[in-house]
Amino acid sequence: MTRLLASPAYRLVLASFLWSFGGNLVYFFLNFHLEALGFGRQAIGLAQALLLFTGVVFALPLAYLIPRVGYLRSLHLAFLLAVGSGLLLGLGLLVFPSLAGYGLAGALLQGAAAPLMARLVPPGRRVALFSLQAALTTASGFFSTLLAGFLSEWVGARWVLLFALPFFLMAVPLVLGLPEGEGQAPRFRGRFGVWLRLLLPQVVIGLGAGLVIPFLNLFLKEKFGLTYGATGLVFALSSLATGLAMLLQPLLVRRVGKLGAIVLVQALSLPFLALLAWAPWLPVVTLALL
């Protein structure tokens, strides 16, 4: 373990795991937390919209600013914002400003962590390190949703989000003192066509997912009368299935190609989405969610 922590890249991977653990806990339980604070469905929808809107508004400015400010400084600012906003949000204070701050922290992290990782490892090791990071992120989703369900039964839904803070704080020492690595700032000019082809499908998919995913936990809990713990178990199983599917991605890409794999996976998701909405049995809905 000491040898691993001596490597800047592995320290960043571990910090990413801890951040993901806390972030997944917030992501899964935010609706229930707001409900426990007395917010209605419309206010919860506005809260989710604000969280996502903050990321959208700041994405392009941060893409320009982060390389100039520094990836490491941007990470430090992201952790500071996450801890401060998470504390206020967990206590039920200044909820909407806290959500805006938390959304900005997430945008900073996404814009700084991946480029910093790429600068810390040689090209030949990047696939392995990013794959490890993705696997640990998926594992964090499994365990954090289980933990959130357990904590809600123990301390009540009102206080669960505060338990994300220790994971954010444990990540801070791991990123302190990391080198900036070597590399050049990304070039955005002259690539409009490439960026359009990359972003447009994601925008369309995101519009559809944004209508469903943020409210799926509330929907399942109310439709089937689940406890917080049972809802957490269902979503934990979904995270586990996602991790297993990631292991099959290389095989699928070899058989149908990168574009074919994307189209196939998106097409297969449609009937399962219909099952989530209309199937009257929890086992079927759980299978569809997987």
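The record above closes out task 2.4. Task 2.5 opens with a second protein, given below.
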Amino acid sequence: MKRGVRRTLSVGVAISLGAVGLGLAGCERAGEQPASLMLTFMEQEHGSEPYLTRTLVTREFMRMDGGEDADDFVLFDRGTQTIYSVNNMNGNILVIEPRAVEEAPGMALELDEERVELGDALPEAVAGHDAQRHRFIANGEVCNEVVSVPGLYDEAVAAVGEFLTVLAGQHGASLAMVPPDMRRPCDLATHIYAPARHLEHGLPVWERSEDGAVGRYLTAHEPAWPVDEALFRLPESYERYSLGGF
């Protein structure tokens, strides 16, 4: 963690990452991970209709798209830790390479979390699984809530964490352009200095920003889905470009 960022855990928070009986084909025991996995989520942003997204995970790649093979997509190469955002209409690819976050947050950043009652937030797709609901906090401000299933698809959890860490490096590159009085603790924590903290409790199956503007939940999961290698190839003719910050 960067200097000026302090991490604490609320007293009494129960963190359990022990073995969990999954009861899933090809993944019956904790630690036994499928070579390929498809996750489908329903997402919604404030003022928009809900929409489906798909995440495909292997040991080498992670692809995120709208559920159709011909869609625009984001490809994460886990070997090189590089993100490729493919735009078919424009025929180009945004390339985001890994970089360290060098900019200081500009404030003392204290991160906290607390475990709360699960309630009715467990998606039907993982009904019957042990789950935990946590509220994530930065400088006393609640940033988001997440329901996680410990031990479920650890390979996917690792891939998402790697992806978010690379993305945080890109976000950090633009931080110098943000005036100190416009920096919010939750934005700094979520997008730059602790992008993967919500993954420490397992696979997120339900997420919601505190203001309710953004949310998503898992609708389906398919371990050991038949891998189509073409879905993990980049169009050779597309122009590639990168950004210093955004």
